[in-house]
Specification:
This protein has 392 residues and is mainly β. The protein has one helix at residues 16-19, and strands at 9-12, 26-32, 39-49, 52-57, 61-66, 70-75, 80-85, 89-91, 99-104, 109-114, 119-123, 129-132, 140-145, 151-156, 160-165, 173-176, 182-188, 193-198, 202-207, 212-219, 224-231, 254-260, 264-269, 275-280, 285-290, 295-300, 305-309, 318-320, 327-333, 336-341, 346-350, 358-360, 368-373, 378-382, 387-390. It has two domains: 9-85, no CATH class; 89-390, Methylamine Dehydrogenase, Chain H (7 Propeller), CATH 2.130.10. The strands form eight sheets. The protein has a seven-stranded mixed beta sheet, with no helix packed on it. Strands 1-2-3-4 form a four-stranded antiparallel beta sheet. The two termini are 34 Å apart.
Length: 392
């Protein structure tokens, strides 16, 4: 296995855009690499002229373009660059406690869950709560919209999957069968079938119409922390000679990735219910995501990230490890992906060479549990109870 690329990286004061606002304002900046001592400096606003800021930086640091919500910072030795992007809106009235799950639609709706067992539907333009979804009897760990954008799937500690109308708040369907908390879900095509995984070590395929489990897709040792569903590459054996269950819709050609607590990333054929490959990491795998039919990324508790090609699983295409902070969520974005971490950092990693990185700022040392997008804005949810909205 290749050694993760330990690049130098920059860390900035979480409220930098406010601190630099007035003449004489400043914010701190740090350059870090591996186990080396960090190099610290400041960026200061020395003049305000017709609304334009003139800034200076400590030796070794350079400031590129500075806008209201974005700033480019460079460091010379070690060589590092990052564009820092500040939030454009903060929604602080949706939840009162830590927000652990979030999803958004292109039509202006958001759904989120917090540690006070609140599952809320809200307006992505202003954070106004539309309705509360009540029915779970334990913590909700995951929530997402069906492709229609008007139906919600949620699950959590009460070992139930619940399907809700986002328009009425009613829950016509509850699915039971797991024997441990449900940690993640995936929706097959338009949603006649769904997939779930969790602490009982199983991944299950469900029929929503008949509220029943069609099959166990996988059963292993230990928790399954996350899953991702995509179209599998033609090099994989995704076919089966057996006739599928008549209640299966859209499972042909689908590959399921499973992020496991026992350090393994497992690939499973959804139609044939077979384990197709296994990639072993150095610590628990927290999450995974498809980048294309042939490539995916997985991320670990020890901060390592791996870009993997299914045609040669044993040799990662690329790997990264900027810090030891656990990676908590992944979002495919542009030509790479966003990764949110337990140390409040949410960064963009490019899957192609030469593309510049950026980082979303705002949280102050609090874990960012999830990052999602509606195609025009990016949203994060955090332990501090806030949902932040960004434009990149």
């Amino acid at each position: 296995m290749s050694t993760p690329l330990e690049q130098a990286y920059l860390v900035v004061q979480n409220d930098w855009e406010e601190a630099i606002g007035d003449e004489g304002g400043s914010f701190w900046i740090t350059c870090k690499k591996g186990g080396m001592p960090g190099k610290h400096g400041t960026v200061s606003n020395t003049r305000v002229d017709a609304g334009n800021k003139q800034v200076s930086a400590s030796p070794g640091f350079r400031v590129g373009e500075l806008k209201k919500y974005a700033v480019d910072i460079y460091h010379d030795d070690p060589n590092a660059y990052c564009k820092f992007i500040a939030k454009q809106a903060t929604f602080n009235a949706i939840h009162k406690k830590s927000v652990v799950a979030i999803d958004v639609t292109t039509s202006g709706l958001g759904v989120s869950a917090s540690t006070d067992n609140k599952l809320q539907i809200w307006d992505t333009s202003n954070g106004t709560v539309r309705r509360t979804l009540e029915g779970h009897v334990g913590d909700v760990y995951t929530c997402r919209f069906f492709p229609s954008g008007v139906v919600v799937l949620s699950a959590g500690a009460d070992i139930q999957l619940k399907i809700w109308s986002a328009e009425t708040g009613q829950c016509p369907v509850s699915l039971k069968g797991h024997t441990g908390a449900i940690l993640d879900t995936a929706i097959v095509d338009r949603g006649r079938n769904i997939i779930s995984c969790g602490k009982d070590g199983t991944a299950r395929l469900w029929d929503c119409g008949q509220s029943m489990c069609i099959a166990k897709l996988y059963e292993g040792n230990g928790d399954i922390n996350g899953c991702a569903l995509g179209i599998g590459d033609n090099s994989l054996n995704l076919t089966t000679s057996r006739e599928p269950n008549e209640r299966e819709v859209g499972t042909e050609g689908k590959l399921l990735l499973l992020a496991c607590e026992n350090n393994n990333l497992v690939g499973v054929g959804v139609r044939n219910k077979k384990e197709l490959f296994k990639f072993t990491c150095t610590s628990a795998v927290n999450c995974c995501a498809f980048l294309s039919e042939a490539e995916f990324v997985c991320a670990c508790q020890d901060g390592r990230l791996y870009q993997i090609d299914v045609r040669n699983v044993n040799e990662p295409v690329a790997s990264w490890m900027n810090s030891g902070a656990a990676v908590l969520s992944l979002l495919p974005y542009k030509k790479g992906f966003l990764a949110s971490k337990s140390d409040s950092v949410c960064s963009y990693y490019s899957a192609v060479s030469g593309e510049k990185t950026f980082q979303l700022t705002g949280p102050d040392c609090d874990p960012v549990y999830k990052v999602v997008t509606d195609g025009s804005s990016i949203y994060t949810c955090c332990r501090d109870g806030l949902i932040r909205k960004y434009r990149v």
